[in-house]
Amino acid sequence: QVQLVESGGGLVQAGGSLRLSCAASGRAFSSYRMGWFRQAPGKEREFVATITWSGGTTYYADSVKGRFTISRDTAKNTVYLQMNSLKPEDTAVYLCAARRVVSDSFDYWGQGTQVTVSS
User: Fold this and answer.
1) What is the mean pLDDT of the chain?
2) CA 110, CA 66: separation in Å to the nearest integer?
3) Contacts (Cβ under 8 Å, ≥6 apart) of 114
4) pLDDT surpassing 90 at residue 7
5) pLDDT of amino acid 108
6) Which of 68, 111, 113, 116 has the fewest CB atoms lying closer than 10 Å?
7) Which of 34, 30, 19 is CA-nearest to residue 82?
8) CA distances for 64 relative to 1, 11, 50, 100, angstroms
9) Under a CB-based contact definition with an 8 Å cutoff, are residues 77 and 25 in contact?
10) Share of the chain above pLDDT 70, in %
11) pLDDT exceeds cutoff 90 at 101
């Protein structure tokens, strides 16, 4: 069974940085795409970034492009989200997700980690 466990969230001032981690277990992820999403109070869940486990191909939401970087360490089975130049509007619960490359939707989700950016 796939397990995704996020960590690294916290409280940071605007302009600061955080690095989120997602420890993945339960199967080999070579044919998977991993993603980060976020959900702020009263808002819908939104896409942040994705990366293919095998080749490292990345995609980003326009709102985070140039500030956030998604990466993965295949030896540690961990996906990271480096967040720089944080803004108050980045405040949300950040969730890690996984889907098979051939799937249309993300099948597995972590519990999330809270990121709060103060102005």
Assistant:
1) 95
2) 25
3) 9, 10, 92, 93, 94
4) yes
5) 95
6) 111
7) 19
8) 31, 18, 12, 24
9) yes
10) 100
11) no
